Amino acid sequence: MFNLSIQQTELKELEATVEKLEKLQQQFQDSPDIALPYAMILVNLSTEQTELKEWKATAEKLEKLQQQFQDSPDIALPYARILFDLSTEQTELKELETTAEKLEKLQQQFQDSPDIALPYARI
Question: The pTM is what?
Fold first, then answer.
């Protein structure tokens, strides 16, 4: 389904694919092999979203997924990326500080990952 999502250009199509993969992930909640494509497709979805509230909702889904797979840098990376993207649209200092704190926590958890450190450094 992730490969399908790459080809989809309409937001509605992408949302439908995300929903299908979300159901699959819920069915196999302990499978990191299903969680990773779900995390990646959520990032794809966020790139098509235009409303800040939509981005926040997508970031929350990734946050829950990352909490479920706390030891997976592969799942933490899409979460770090969406947090950085979200920060570029946040105008209130308190929101931006909260996002920076979440990125800092991820970076501390995955100290050996330059890919996770980069979004934190750029915020």
Answer: 0.89
